[in-house]
Predict the structure.
Amino acid sequence: MTPRSSALWRLPIERLVPWVALVPVPVWFLFAVLLTPAPAWRAVYRAEAGATEVVEVFEREMSHIWSGKYFAEVPGDLPRDSFVAEFDACLTQAHRATVPFMLVADGEARFLLDGEVVLEVPAGADARSRVTGKPLELTEGRHHLRVEFRARSRPRVGLLASFDGAAPKPITTGSVTSGTKVTRPAAIGDACP
Amino acid sequence: MTGPQASRTGVAHDATGRFETPQDGTAIGGWRGWDVVSLVLLGFTSIVMLLTLRDYGFTYDEPPHIIYGDRILEFYGNGFQARRKLQSSSYVGGFDLVAALLRQISPFDRFETNHVLCIFVAQCGLVGTWKLGRLLGGPLAGLCSWLLLTLIPVYYSHQFNNPKDVPFAAGYVWGLYVIAKLLVVGEREPSRVSSLLRSPRYFLQLGLALGLGMSVRVGGALLIGYLVIALGSLLAEHKWRQGTWLAVDWRRFALYGFLALALAWLILLVFWPRAFLSPVQGPVGAVESVSKYKAFDSPTLLRGKLVSSQNVPWDYLPTYFLVQLPELTSLLFAVGLGVCARETWRSWRRRAELPLGMLLLVGATLLPPTYAILRGSTLYDGLRHFLFIMPPLACLAGVTFARSCGALAVRRRSWARALAALGLLFVTDQVVALVQLHPYQHVFFNRVAGGTRPAVKRYETEYYGALYQELGKELSETLWQRDREAYLNRNYSIAACGSYLFISHNMPPNFRYTPMGKVERADVFATYPRDRCLERKKNRPALVKIERRGAMLGVARDLRGVFTEEAP
């Protein structure tokens, strides 16, 4: 049987070409939507500390800039330059490691690791001292990451870490590196036991 | 008439218009194996585009389009209450609205989600180009058209992060394909024209193609003009050659034609709040303001001189096409123009069928830039705004190449082989260029311009700001590796040319954007080539350089001399 007379050769290949070219992108996107873990950072926004009315949202990354029209809007119609927010996530560490962490904030912020304040940007810090960081010891197991933030004018806040020796990046959702995973706390106040 | 026949394309086809497997060298372009090659290559390219998607940074055009998409979505969400800017926007938001909808479910950030949609729409454009080339010249012509378009570097990288020019190119080529179908049927089987003009399916395709073409730029209405000219030419040609008018059911044609235009209009309204709120006055006002567009005046480089974008010399566009298209593509296009002119003249003299399909490609390629030149339109960013003529240009070049192969094979097989070898050499050369310039293929300049390196000072190269992604990553890594202790406890002030988003979005939050007016207060100056920014602060030591093919496209310089030990 020559190729020309084979059933394969008689297939309407020209009709398959558009499908072969166009299907991969939507299929890949669909898989990404279905398989990407849900945003890990549980964020609670309030108009002021202690306010009972809260807006709870889930975010993929611990890095926000609220100034400028192209950046994030504060949820719940809270004023952009006057609100407080708490961000919580659970970090699972497969091996003991020393990890450099950084807290960047325009406003007042502190980072708590397993309930203990380890990094702090005080209110009224000058431009150069709005960044603070140090290497922290992470034992094997789950850890609670919490950032508390009080906004000032043109607010921003970010929690960064370097798990792979490269420059610190904002802590995101899912597998940050092999052996380190960031997941969502079960509820407000969950300390990631 | 059922047996195979040879058309002027040199490809055998049967009465249904399907191309037959060739029996001899004359139909080399009709060999169905080319479809298999197309299948493999188009699928492969789709995968490559997906795998390299994240290498492409966002461009300065994207943030306004993201906001625009969000506003359109908001418009539908709040009972058609439009903000003032939305009511007066001349942009049709077809791409932007779909991107805004995708963002509702996307796990990626706004720009990456945009890029996913960009490459999908770009793939639609590539498939449209393949289909148009195949329709006009057979399977080899389809393959060559697709290949020639894919291998135009400036077009290639725009497919990833250009939310208007490439989507418009995709709509444009599909519009041309539907119009060309009519012409090809008229050329091969005039008796079928009347049945095509009675076919609801054809008019549905027409309405969709016109609507989607216009849903990115209102200038897509150009396609309606092409359609009218194509139909008029077809009817006039038939009358001229046969002495009788084509039998067309005019009442049905008028009805279906009206419905197709109504469908196109409806698509336009959905994507364009300005037209939604004012269906006639809105688009008319937009066309007027677009054609008189003078709001943006930016210096733009041409042969080493900065010229005002509102007063560019007439040869601005022709020069950019000459130096940015690959050499063989330009040559094939020029040959295609010559062949088309000769065939038209010969057919005219013999009262034979005119090559209307090819003439459509010529018109679709040459008319828009000619109009822009004659009107003295505002032009900048090289040929970016005319990327939409690349698909028909590639089709004309691709059909020319396929026909040349067929014609040479008839005379002597070895000549056809030599041409094929030249084609392979060209493909290899262009693939090397695409790889070496990745992901800034739009900075490609051919040998006529002396390559990319000298072009950086003479032409617009990386004007889009996509390189700040790589520059930001390299800069933060360099500073981190230099002094980790210091890095953990300080902000870096970065002055940069272009949008503040280039720094704010591409760099960690400990890097802060400083406007160029306050550059003296900054720690680092980061830039791309636009506005001759690479010439600034040249006496300061470079921390990071982004280079491709020996050309420096971006640099970050240490303004205070504290991060580098080297002498300025």
Summary: The CA atoms of residues 480 and 487 of chain B lie 6 Å apart. Residues 1-26 of chain B have pLDDT under 50 and may be disordered. The longest helix of chain B spans residues 110-137.
